C-alpha cells in the first residue's frame, strides 16, 4: 500500500510522510542515558516543563543522595523542590526504589519518573503513591518518545501518563512569564533585577553577539528565566550571561573540567571566578560596566571544548 494522497484545495495531491518512532539510545548523541541524555535534558528543561505545566530551573545534576546519584535536582516557580529520575527503556523496580530514596533524601515535593515506557505495574505504583503519600508530594510518570517523519531529524516528545490527584495542567503563573516572553523588561519587572545589573548583562550579551558574528560562529542567543544562553546546534548552552542570582552578573562558559585540571590559564585573572561542578561551568562575576571584559577570550575558551554536535565530552584527566 502506498502513502495516502489527499488533494489540496487546488487539486494537487498532498503527499504525507510516515511517522517513525525511535529508541532514545539509537539517536546519535544519546547513546548513554547518564552521560548524554541527562545533560541534554538539563539544557532543555522548558520542553519537559511545558508538558508538566511547570516553570523549571536547574539546581544540580548527578546530585549525590547517600550512595546514589540523582539525575536532576530542580526547582519550580513556586520554589518547590522537583526531582527527575531518567531511565532509557522500560521502567524497573530498581529505579522505583531509587526514586523513593531520592524523594526522601531531598524532601522533594514534585517527583518525576521519566522513561521510554512505564509498565502497568509501575503506573499503578505511582497512582498508589499519589493517593496514599503525604499531602503536598506529587508523583509524575512521564514517557519519552522520539519521532521522525521519513528522513527528518528526530524530535523528542514527553507524554504525562501519571500525575498527582486533582492536578490541573496549567499555564505558568502570570508572575513567571513564559519562555518566549523573557527579555530585559521582564527581567526587571518580573524578577526584580535592578537596572545596574541589567545594564551589565545587556552589555555582555551585545558584545558577545557582535563577537560571534565577527567570528562566523553560529551560536544563537536565547533568553531564559534570569539568564541569556548562547547555544550551539542541538540547544546546548556554550556561554551564559546570568543575572538570576542576587550577586553581580555572571559570565560563564561550559567546559568539561576546572581550568587548573585542563591546564588552561584564567583569561580574566582580575575577576572573581569559580567552578560549578554540577553545571560544568566556569564563571566570572562582572560587578560593573567598567569591569566588563573582552568576551572574545571566553568565546575562545568555550569553543575549544565544544563539539559541533552532541553533548560535551569529558576528557580523561588521569
Q: Judging by the overall fold, what is the CATH architecture of the largest domain?
A: 3-Layer(aba) Sandwich
CATH T-level topology of the largest domain: Trna Endonuclease, Chain: A, domain 1
Assigned CATH class of the largest domain: Alpha Beta
Determine the fraction of residues in helical runs and give it as a percent range: 25-40%
What is Rg?
22 Å
The largest sheet, given as strand count, sense and whether it forms a barrel, is: 7 strands, mixed
Uncertain spans: 168-180
Roughly what fraction of the amino acids lie in strands? Answer: 25-35%
- Averaged pLDDT, please? 82
**N- to C-terminal distance:** 57 Å
Kindly report the oligomeric state of this protein: single chain
Task: Tally the beta strands.
Answer: 15
Helix/strand/pairing category: alpha+beta
- Envelope shape: globular
Order of helices and strands: EEEHHEEEHEHEEHHEEEEHEEH
- List the domain count as a whole number: 2
Number of helices: 8
Care to describe what's here?
The protein is an alpha+beta fold and 318 residues long. The protein has two domains: 21-162, 3-Layer(aba) Sandwich (Trna Endonuclease, Chain: A, domain 1), CATH 3.40.1350; 182-303, Aspartate Aminotransferase, domain 1 (Alpha-Beta Complex), CATH 3.90.1150. The chain is built from eight helices and 15 strands. Strands 3, 4, 5, 6, 7, 8 and 9 form a seven-stranded mixed sheet that branches. 31% of the residues are buried. The longest helix is centred in the middle third of the chain and has 21 residues, at 195-215. It has helices spanning 33-43, 45-52, 93-106, 120-132, 184-189, 195-215, 259-262, 295-303; strands at residues 5-7, 13-15, 19-22, 56-65, 68-76, 81-90, 110-117, 138-149, 155-162, 220-224, 227-232, 236-242, 250-254, 273-276, 281-285. The termini are far apart.
Amino acid at each position: 500500500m502506498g502513502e495516502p494522497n489527499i488533494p489540496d484545495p487546488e487539486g494537487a495531491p498532498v503527499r504525507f510522510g510516515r511517522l517513525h518512532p525511535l529508541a532514545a539510545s539509537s539517536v546519535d548523541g544519546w547513546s548513554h542515558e547518564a552521560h548524554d541524555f541527562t545533560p541534554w535534558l538539563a539544557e532543555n528543561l522548558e520542553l519537559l516543563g511545558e508538558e508538566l505545566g511547570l516553570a523549571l530551573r536547574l539546581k544540580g545534576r548527578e546530585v549525590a543522595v547517600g550512595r546514589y546519584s540523582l539525575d536532576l535536582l530542580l526547582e519550580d516557580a513556586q520554589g518547590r523542590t522537583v526531582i527527575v529520575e531518567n531511565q532509557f527503556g522500560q521502567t524497573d523496580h530498581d529505579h522505583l526504589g531509587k526514586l523513593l530514596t531520592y524523594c526522601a533524601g531531598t524532601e522533594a515535593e514534585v517527583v518525576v519518573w521519566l522513561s521510554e515506557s512505564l509498565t502497568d505495574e509501575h503506573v499503578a505504583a505511582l497512582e498508589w503513591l499519589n493517593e496514599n503519600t503525604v499531602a503536598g508530594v506529587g508523583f509524575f510518570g512521564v514517557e519519552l518518545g522520539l519521532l521522525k517523519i521519513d528522513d527528518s531529524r528526530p524530535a523528542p516528545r514527553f507524554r504525562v501518563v501519571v500525575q498527582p490527584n486533582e492536578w490541573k495542567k496549567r499555564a505558568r503563573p502570570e508572575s513567571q512569564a513564559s519562555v518566549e516572553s523573557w527579555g530585559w523588561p521582564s527581567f526587571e519587572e518580573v524578577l526584580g533585577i535592578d537596572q545596574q545589573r541589567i545594564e551589565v548583562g545587556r552589555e555582555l550579551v551585545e558584545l558577545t553577539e557582535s563577537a560571534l558574528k565577527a567570528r562566523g560562529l553560529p551560536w544563537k542567543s536565547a533568553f531564559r528565566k534570569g539568564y541569556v544562553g548562547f547555544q550551539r546546534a542541538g540547544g546546548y548552552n556554550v556561554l551564559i550571561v546570568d543575572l538570576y542570582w542576587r550577586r553581580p552578573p555572571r559570565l560563564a562558559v561550559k567546559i568539561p573540567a576546572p581550568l587548573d585540571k585542563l591546564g588552561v590559564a584564567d583569561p580574566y585573572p582580575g575577576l572573581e571566578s569559580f567552578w560549578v561542578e554540577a553545571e560544568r561551568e566556569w564563571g566570572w562575576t562582572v560587578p560593573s560596566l567598567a569591569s566588563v571584559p573582552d568576551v572574545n577570550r571566553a568565546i575562545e575558551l568555550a569553543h575549544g571544548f565544544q563539539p559541533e554536535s552532541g553533548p560535551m565530552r569529558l576528557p580523561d584527566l588521569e
